[in-house]
Amino acid sequence: MPYSWKPLLLLLLPYLSFCQAPFDCNGRIFRVLEEQGGSTFQEIRIDYDNQKAEFEDLAFFSGLQLNGMCYRPADNLIYGVQLGPDIIAEPGESLVLAPDIQSSSPLAYLFWSENSGHTLSCNTCETPEVSPLEAGLYRLEISNLNGCTAEDNLSIIVLPFHYYAPTAFSPNGDQINDLFLLYGRRDFAIRHFRVFDRWGNLACHKEQMRANDPSTGWNGAFNGKPLNSGVYVWTAEAVLSNGNPINISGEVHLIR
What we know:
Layout: E1 8-11, E2 29-34, E3 41-45, E4 52-55, E5 61-66, E6 69-72, E7 77-82, E8 87-89, E9 95-96, E10 100-102, E11 107-114, E12 129-130, E13 136-144, E14 149-158, E15 163-164, E16 168-169, E17 183-184, E18 189-196, E19 202-210, E20 221-222, E21 225-226, E22 230-239, E23 245-254
């Protein structure tokens, strides 16, 4: 007698408790994988309003997949990977990617990829380090010995290097704007800081400073002697989080 297909009306609510977090299964489609190592998938749509779904005879299937999560009713296994929310970082900031991997059987495959250059410390490590200089998308693909596969993406948004340099200061001892220093969202290092007068003469030279640190600010003096009012040019070699230097410069008005 030839095989005939009939829709099977099945109550799935007991099997879908894992979908309540982090996924909302309602209205989404499950891909149902053949039990005996096949590659054919059937699809079912979940309807929480009726708590029912229709698909071919369940006896042929044992694996359910949904948006990176895999559930095997026969073994009561949950499987998936999540990389968490997108990350905002400074240029060159060192980050550790720590995925949340759920698998009750050993992984057979794990691979990281990216679209922003060679920033990953390792493509096959579970928790690689990255120090991106520009924004990028990172993807982790995994599979386990039960044949479940999952993947997730993570975007790292790299903010432009940001600093603020006052355009004027008044080193007159009134404790208001007495120092000139550089400010940043974070306390970046400054290897060299130099100030020149309008004739190009060196008026200040400091090393190993830090942004946002008043103890390393310039007080408008050279060799202990207060300088005259005027416009001075400054240059600095700032250091990114990964050790790469960046040269910045500007002008500041010294007011007496």
